[in-house]
Amino acid sequence: RGAWQLGRILKQQGDITGAIAAYQGAFEHLQSLRSDLVAVNPDVQFNFTESVEPVYRELVSLLLQPTLTKGQAEEASQANLKQAREVIEALQLAELDNFFRDACLDTKPVILDEIDTQAAVIYPIILQDSLGDSFASRLEVILSLPNQPLRHYGTQLPKQKVENVLQQLYSSLYPGYSSQQRLRLAEQVYDWLIRPAEADLANSGIQTIVFVPDGFLRNLPIAALYDGKQYLIEKYSIALSPGLQLFPQGLEREELSVLTAGLTKARQGFAELPAVEEEVKEIASEVNSQILLNQDFTRTAFEKQINGIPFPIVHLATHGQFSSNPEETFLLTWDERIGVKDFDVLFEKRRLGILKPIELLVLSACQTAAGDKRATLGLAGFALRSGARSTMASLWSVHDESTADLMSEFYRQLTQTNPPMTKAEALRQAQLTLLRDVKYNHPYFWASFVLVGNWL
Known about the structure:
The chain has 456 residues and is α/β, with parallel strands linked by helices. It has 3 domains: 2-100; 112-245; 250-453, Rossmann fold (3-Layer(aba) Sandwich), CATH 3.40.50. The protein has helices at 2-12, 16-32, 34-39, 48-51, 53-63, 78-100, 112-115, 161-172, 179-193, 198-203, 275-286, 299-306, 342-346, 348-351, 376-386, 401-414, 423-435, 443-446; strands at 67-69, 72-74, 119-131, 134-144, 151-158, 208-211, 237-240, 257-262, 288-293, 313-322, 330-332, 337-339, 360-368, 390-394, 449-453. Strands 8, 9, 10, 11, 12, 13, 14 and 15 form an 8-stranded mixed sheet that branches. A 5-stranded mixed sheet has the order 5-4-3-6-7. Strand 3 (119-131) and strand 4 form a beta hairpin.
């Protein structure tokens, strides 16, 4: 805390170099205390958003500021951009540690160029700057392209403007909202995140954009951003990542088989999901499937299957909720709820390498908790606790045959072998199929599905 306070004082005095050094000391101290911070008794748990998060954000803000050299403003150096990226990834990890209340996530820094030379990574971060007695928002973006220096661009906006526009865009994704207003908001966010990088993305032959989203951006379907003529998904495959440090290595292409479990009937106060039966049939028509439906989908039966035949894909078509509170993050089985922390036990043999890890976990009828700005931490939690290399999930529940159509097309694309298709591209093609269908061309039907983790 002493180094953090010193950094703030030096920043106010205009000593940016000294402030960065002080903040780096505070940051390194927090990193060394990572496991201790989350081991504190929850009753006296530090307030993460007040005591820890500001150190990361304020350091990134300093690192991304233009520097004055001989009176000339110069863009942030490559060294500063690299450190800012490292701090953004560390913040993502810290948020997940705080969510789980333990520092259990194994990290291995990876180099994008060694994973996919046709993927770009975009790191947006929302910062608050003090300007006299008022505050302003800055939406800063670091762009990582294969075999190229990092790039950086940002937008200065009035306080709350970023948050307000993002929340309005989220609301506009429901049918009944003005399409003209929705497209205007989607283009506004596109202008902030993508427009400054358009030429670089095109010139670098990029096919997949991986977002490491911050704040409320996590709740938004990036696929539905709009450039004035077309949606982003019409140009690129899209994936989300809670940080490339969590990218699991290796991906085996094998004959696909799916363990599919779901509920069609109303259970435990949750409504029936009649379209799930069609969804399960559609999947079985495309891929070799083992099915647990309704009464057969108990926790015990599910656990037995998970620890038995090593299915590369697990598809759960059941009610579930993602929340920033792990106690309110769960999936529904016929007889009980599976909490996010239960995933540790259920998938332990997969995570430890005793059984093959899951290539893809699909959660097709879940939704984010209403009014919870950090709800998608729960989604990332399921993804990481299962040890799955990729997780595909819905940001909101679309109770409609459109989900069955999208899933059928997704698996049809995924089973192609000549040439093999990446998961991100398979999802893109499935979303485009719905977008081109006059019944389902509204983003409400196709944009809710996001791919988290390994996009290959």
